[in-house]
Each structure stands twice: as structure tokens, then as C-alpha cells.
Amino acid sequence: MAILQSIIKPFGAFISKPGKPLPGGSPRLTVHPSASKTCIVTERQLDDIWIYDVTSRYLPAAEANPGRHKEAPSRRVVYVAGGSFCMPPSSDHWKFCAELARSIPNVIISVISPPLAPNCPAPDTIPHLKQLFKSLLIQAEENHETLTFAGDSSGANLVLTVVLDMLQQFPEAEAPDSILLISPVVDLSFTNPEIKQVQKRDPVLRLDIELSTAKSWATSWDLRDPRVSPLNADLSALKRRNVKLHGILGGNDLLTPDAIKFQQLCDRKGIEGEWLLWEKQMHCFPIAFHYHLPESVQGKDWVVQVLSQAISKKLKPEGITADRFQ
Fold it and tell me: How far is it, in rounded angstroms, from Cα 114 to Cα 155?
């Protein structure tokens, strides 16, 4: 992993720089062939948002045995991919979501295509997603599914801020079973002094680019507004509704100092969940699993175990040698 990070670092500004702006509204996505090869991907719309339901064509290896048929899905993971609030899922995201669908028993991975900045900034997109999330939770209840919202980077920010805003505005609305965050953005102001120290080690993200995209996302809202910066939000609804909050962080990621503060806040508020901090790992390292990097593969396996509800508070996932929050 260290060798790869040293190779990537000179190209970090190019990697994290936003692409060409997309039109307003929910972009219709092209499914990457890697996902459709091993999974069934079904396109649908709900509340004017494109959704891509990914299910495995086969039983997970751990459950496969002669004569056994696939069971109807009993859990759903709603996934929002990162991309600086302005880019659709990459091929890496499709591979990751397909791997989750193949590895987690009886699951549907629902990839959401939210409206994106700059044509659809937070003040426009978040109310739209709030209605979508309410609809998805109602459908999950009707279908007897457990539901987890998950995302990476800016996508992790979106699932967290939308759920918090929804449960505060509608206290009796259906609530998810859990939320899973991979390398989340939790404070768009980026004022934590520790960030500049981590920036020196971060091979992927650049602080000036992150701050610029944050401003294009927040627009008229203050960067510290809890609707876009959950580090400043009231988390009491998660405790009240017993929503578990999980997260995985890399030590060489400039977003991690704020994410650590957020995890500590969750701990003080009594919000249950599994958190893994892996030193010397880059931004969103589990999503790089398909490059066969050992730490990325183990990080992905940790995510699979958490989403499969296979981790107890006293058990560290087998094969993982990393620091955990206590």
C-alpha cells in the first residue's frame, strides 16, 4: 500500500479534481460491465431519483451448497458513492457495490444517483433526498427488510446529513437500522489544524480542492451548517431511535482528523457502532480492494462483516491488524 500511495501522490490533484458539471436533476447512470457481469442490476426511479438495485447472481460462497436456492432478500443497503458532491459513481464504486452484493447474504445494494453540484447544490438536493429516504424506509418496512444507509467520502456525508435532518424534522418517521461511513466528510469548513499535518501524507486529496468543492455544494448555507457538516449536528435522534453508526477511516486521509472528532462525539452521546481506524491507509482504501492490496481487501472484508452484522463489540475481525476505537 505504501508503494502505491507514493505512486499516486504526484497525481492527487488530478485524481480529486472535479470533472465536467452534470445537468440538473438525478443523472441516469451507465452500469459498469464489472457489476453486470456477476450481478443483476435493475434500474428504477423513485421520487424522480434514479436507483440501481444490485443483487448477486449467485449465493455467497460461505452459504453455497448443492441444492440450495437463493432466498428472497431480507436486507437492503442504500449506497451513495463519493465524488466531491459533483461526480457520479466510478468504476471502483460499481466493483465495490457488486462485491458487497456477492458477499453479504440475502442483500440488495441500492445505488442512488443524487442530483449533484454545481447545478444542484445542497439547498436543492438535500430536501429531495430527504423525501427519497422516507420513501425507501417505508418500502423497506412494507417488504420486511432491514435497511442500512452507507456511503463513502461525500456520499457518506450525504447519507448521514439527510438521515439526521429527516429524523429531526419527522421524529416519528421510519428509521434505518444502521448507517455505515467510509472516510466521511463531516465538517465542510476544514478548519481543524490537524488537517494540514495529515495533508502532507495524503496521496489522494488536496485541501484547496476539497474546500472549493465544499463551497460549491453548500452555496448559500454556511460551511459549518449542521445540514452539511454533521460534526455540528444534533445526534440525539440516532440515540433515541437506536440507529447504529459504523465507520472506517484511514490515517493518511485529510478527512480523518474531523472524522475522529465525530466518532468521539458519537461515543459521548452513547451512539453504538463499530469503528476502525487503520493507520497509514489512504482515503476510501476499502474501495481499492480489486487491486488486491492486502489492507484494502481486509478493509473491504471488515465492511462486509459489519453490514452482515457479524461483528460483536468484543471481537476484532479475523486477519485485521489495525487500531480500533475503544
Answer: 9
Residue 55, C-alpha cell as written in the block: 443483487
How far is Cα 34 from Cα 102, in angstroms, rounded to an integer?
A: 12
At 16, is the pLDDT very low, low, confident or very high (cuts 50, 70, 90)? low
Amino acid of residue 92: D
Locate cell 452539511: which residue? 228
Q: Which residues pair with 52 in a beta bridge?
A: 43, 111
Q: How many residues belong to the chain?
A: 326
Separation of alpha carbons 172 and 180, rounded Å:
22
pLDDT tier at 312, thresholds 50, 70, 90: very low
Strands 146-152 and 178-182: parallel
pTM over the 0.70 mark: yes
d(Cα 15, Cα 161) in Å, to the nearest integer?
A: 25
Cα-trace Rg, the chain: 18
Q: Output the nine-digit C-alpha cell for 326.
A: 475503544
For the stretch 135-160, pLDDT in tens is: 999 999 999 999 999 999 999 999 99
How far apart are the C-alpha atoms of 83 and 77, rounded to whole Å?
Answer: 19
**Residue 52: all three cell numbers together:** 440501481
* Beta strands 146-152 and 75-80, pairing class: parallel
Cell numbers for 145, please give them: 427488510
Round to whole Å and give the CA distance between 300 and 306.
Answer: 10
> What span, in angstroms and rounded, lies between the C-alpha atoms of 187 and 209?
15
